[in-house]
Design a protein that fits this description.
By secondary structure, the chain is α/β, with parallel strands linked by helices. It has a single domain (2-182), classed as 3-Layer(aba) Sandwich (Rossmann fold), CATH 3.40.50.360. Helices cover 44% and strands 21% of the residues. It has seven helices and six strands. Strands 1, 2, 3, 4, 5 and 6 form a six-stranded mixed beta sheet that branches. Strand 3 and strand 4 (61-62) form a beta hairpin. The radius of gyration is 16 Å and the shape is globular.
């Protein structure tokens, strides 16, 4: 299977997940191309059976370079698309407040991938997401605008600085295996 793993990164978080997906699929014998977004033109995405497209979460949505590539892609390039996202908010699994913050600050990403697939005629294969260590400006923004509670901050920042970690990478590898193993026959639920 021909697979493209393309990603945009500023801090290295999304690159780390892209490399995990790439190495997993390569170890399974697939023909895998790994590229940063700046090295990918819209016409470069055709001819792949699967496209894994990665982005950090910016302003609750995909980063602009990723959105630009999705918009520039030709309609019906063939194959399917799976997204992966790194963000510096809580994960949705941590209770009601964490789910609310996740939806507010990272919730648009999977939907943007899915909408792009519908608009371009690509099969949507779901989205993997995990925390990533925030850059200093994002860390300051989160401290001032999102997590204002002085008691909550130390635990939050200590945890998010650990990501993406080996567990996140293992989950990304499992997601990649699921996407390619299910082929065109079975729909894959978004994560």
């Amino acid at each position: 299977m021909r697979v493209l793993v393309a990603y945009y990164t500023q801090t290295g978080n999304t690159r780390k997940i892209a490399q995990a997906i790439h190495s997993e699929l390569e170890s399974l014998g697939h023909e895998v191309t790994l590229r940063e977004i700046r090295g990918v033109k819209s016409q470069d995405v055709s001819g792949f059976d699967v496209i894994f497209l990665g982005s950090p979460c910016h302003s609750a949505d995909l980063a602009k370079p990723v959105r630009n590539l999705l918009e520039a892609m030709e309609s019906s390039p063939g194959g399917k698309l799976a997204g992966f996202v790194t963000h510096s908010t809580y994960t949705a699994e941590g209770g009601e407040r964490h789910r609310e913050l996740h939806e507010r600050w990272a919730g648009k990403c999977a939907g943007s991938f899915e909408q792009a697939c519908a608009a371009k005629g690509l099969e949507w294969s779901g989205c993997f997401s995990c925390q990533g260590k925030p850059s200093k400006p994002i860390e300051l923004f989160i401290r001032v605008a999102v997590i204002k509670d002085a008691h909550e901050w130390p635990g939050y920042i200590a945890e998010t600085r650990k990501h993406p970690n080996a567990d996140d990478e293992a989950k990304a590898r499992a997601f990649a295996r699921e996407v390619v193993a299910l082929g065109d026959t079975y729909p894959i639920s978004p994560r």
